[in-house]
Specification:
The complex is a heterodimer. Chain A is α/β, with parallel strands linked by helices. Chain A folds into 3 domains: about 220 residues, 3-Layer(bba) Sandwich (FAD/NAD(P)-binding domain); about 120 residues, no CATH class; about 120 residues. Helices cover about 35% and strands about 20% of the residues of chain A. In chain A, the strands form 5 sheets. In chain A, strands 1, 2, 11, 12, 13, 14 and 20 form a 7-stranded mixed β-sheet that branches. In chain A, a hairpin with a 4-residue loop joins strand 13 and strand 14. The longest helix of chain A has 21 residues. The radius of gyration of chain A is 22 Å and the shape is globular. By secondary structure, chain B is α/β, with parallel strands linked by helices. In chain B, strands 1, 2, 9, 10, 11, 12 and 18 form a 7-stranded mixed β-sheet that branches. Chain B is globular and about 65 Å long. The chains are: A alpha/beta, B alpha/beta. The interface between A and B is large, with 36 and 37 residues.
Chain lengths: ~525, ~500
Amino acid sequence: MNKKYDAIIIGAGHNGLTCAGYLAKAGKKVLVLEKRYLVGGATVSEEIVPGFKFATFSYLVSLLRSEVIHDLELVKHGLRMLPFETTLDLAVNGDSLYREPDHYRTYRAIARYSKRDAEAYDDYKLMMRHVIHAVRYLMHHAPPNMDFDANPQALIDLAKHVGTVDKEVLYTLIQLLTISADDFLSQWFETDILKAGLATSGMIGSMVSPKSPGSGLVLLAMYMGEIDGVYRTWRFAKGGTGGVANALAQAARSFGAEIRTNAPVAQLMRHGDEVRGVVLESGEEITADVIVSSLTPQMTYLKLAGEEGLPSDLVQQVKRWNSFGSASKINLALDGVPDFKAMPGYGMHLAGGFNTNVSIDSFERLYDTAKYGDFERHLFIDGGLISFADPDMAPPGKHVMTCFVMYTPYHLRQGTWDERREELGDAVVDTLEHYIPNIRQLIVGRQISTPLDIERLINMSGGNIFQGELRLSQMFLMRPAAGYSGYQTPLHNYYICGSSAHPSGGISGAPGRLAALQILADGKK
Amino acid sequence: MSNNCDVIVIGAGHNGLIAAHALAKAGKSVLVVEQRGEDEEIFPGFRLALGADDDAGLLRQSVIDALGLVEKGVAFVEPDVTAFAPQPNGRSLTLHRHIQQSIASIATHSTHDAGRFAAWREKIGQLTAVLEPHLHQTPTLEQMGTLLLGQPELVRYANVSARETLDWWFENDALKGLLASSSVIGLEHGPYAQNSGFMLLYQYANADGGGFRASRFVQGGMGKLRQAMVTAAMGQGVRMRGETAVSHILLHDGRATGVVLADGETINAELVVSSATPRHTFFNLVKPYNLEPRFMRRVRSQVYRGTTAKLVLAVSQLPEFVGQTEAGQLDGHIVICPSTEYLERAADAGKYGRFPPKPLLDITIATHHAPELAPAGQHLLNITMRYAPYTLRGSSWGEQRAALAETILQTLANYAPGLRDTILHQRLITPLDWEQQFGLTEGSLHHGQMGLEQMFAMRPVPGWGQYATPIGNLYLCGAGAHPGGGLTGLPGSNAARQILADLGA
């Protein structure tokens, strides 16, 4: 027997859950369908090695919108943020740069390389603050309808906002949309390890290098984070990023939403251009007034809906949607405390992040190898010991290390990821050993997720962690397709709410929230 | 006679001449000062305008009309073959001015691609038509906003890599390589880089028909075009002083009041218009201490990084290339670029301060449309090579010149086996030579890289895209200003129009 819902959300990632929370809070009867055994999508924590909890995919929180935390009462439902405040950049030649919250210590660390850069660091951060302040307007607003007559207010508001932005800031913002991270940073800095360390934000999850045009935009997107109004702050979530998903799920449930795991959706139930429900892979049919997909455009349109009846320009854009991943995720269970060659012994650095192989040239070489379909043995790893921030993630005295690894292309020229998965794991351990001599003897277990695994396990087409490359022509009015950038789709009652919608990826909840607001507004008409 | 005038134009390149012509036509007394002399005899019996490419295809009709170039004897040659691409496997691909012939040649490589070529040309034509009016305007933030928000398809094609857009359309490496060779002009990046799609569009402006860019040459050589421009300018009363180097721009209360020449002579003017590169203009002619620090940082950060070298060969007979079936195939561009990956790998080398063992070569035979440049039966090959980085790591151009020339000749030998034996003379121009002999900062032929981040209102630097500068009465009119390099004539004509508007004329 079918049960009638107001809304079905496909996918229990953070955006699906956020959307569900908002709809349920507004009194809608909501069902969330998740194909895996647990909620979270890319924000999950799993006990793969007994006693050790891994943040399987994403591992840091920064972009989560304060209004989502507030509206959905996430703190009440268990959300806790833990400090993650230091960055240790490690170069292959033994150079290192340790940046920490203390302004003067960081100043001195940079000044060891260049006094000019130490001075410029404040200028740079101030400029980025202004830029982010200008652009975060977009995080709160759906892309405007470009048909001025249809909705003049959104365009007027946008123009007004742009009018308030200082010209110098506006030009810097526009520059960031197309420039390379290296060219952008070189306006302030000359020190390679500092530029490269900062440029990592322009590489994250994307098939661009510091010298590639477009890495400036990724840098901008990764800078938009804030915690409690403080920009550019990163945090661990208590319990890993799964802790965020669990809080979101609890919040949604508290408002009456129903969440079903192990319930993969096979396709939509369509009647012409109208979507009436979903068919699960089990054959079960469930109807609802509104169906919301949190998946990639390829899944949303080509697989679930099917091409038939979709506008041809949309289908073409979806087929050309670039979502090829460059990142893999390796989690390590450790029997003790890693000892960094650059900073031996205990210290605050253990509770922060570290980057390996940090130099512009190294990153370029990794990217060059990846763009021809292979990966290097000495990789870029953005790592951290989650268990230092949250001891509950590992047994006493033991630790989990999260390793975000680049550049590992989705398309391999030789072999497949199934054949080469362990080779990647070995390369990561080899790389780590260069900086952490005792790492090998500490490892008691590891989990490797290649771009192919990310695609298979959580339906991220192409393995891109943002559900689509962050680039000018895939943002804002063009995310996920020009002419289809709101949360509505050309099919009646069918909506999108995932990272492939504006304002894109990262654990922000923003697309989920904006989609819910759109659905609620449409329901009132 | 007073040497004072209303306007001094620094540099008698095409943009300087075009601006001077327009300003004089509006009634200004204009003096153009140029460091270099006339085009030279490069080898005994051979002449060539070294600073220019042979292809004048980007020159806009509005500029040709404004200067009356056709009336002054400029004739354009439009060969049937626009591009000929010999392949490593001994085959070749030929693009023609007439699309059906191009399609026939493509069909010998891929029927799939042959079936799509006409639609691709139409799409590129539509998008360049959208872009074109914006290249004729003084750029503004509003203009960029309009394009960004209102022209999603143009933005998509401009923002993707050339490789990606060519992969949308085609499957054949030879075709994609040949087309991609246009996408990296003026860039240090390869065709895998985002925004290289933009350069592909830029280079196809003015191109009608079924070929390779506009591929239009000047009868008698580029020197003829320059002479006609000089004649046009002088016809409006413009005075010209060649072999006259400017030492610096005279400033009074932050405003330009004239120039001081290298020999110490002072020339006063109400306006100074520079067609030199922005960095040369601000750092050498104005001096950094006269600039506001934020502006100085912008100028310092402007990216040049020239990657183009040129090898001119005088040969005793026409070369014969692999895959060549008729002489006419050598009338347009001869392009060595068998795939996008070949091109990307060449760019990789440049990134690390080396030149690639297998470079991109774009060859034109100047004597085809200008036989008078060489003794009868002999020819000039104008070979443009990428990527030769301005800054070599661990070496210098003094040490590497011979090796670069050898690399180019070796590459050529694979495609034109007998060529080496016919060489009478050769002359190499490295990026450093472009800077030292032609005043092109860091050897950037386009007066600053043509990346999307340095185009429109961002050119030459963010906030100063309207030809005016922070120095009062000092304007830019060269390729460093919108819409950039390539022989379009647009920076010069746009700047003149803006200057006259600013003067309230």
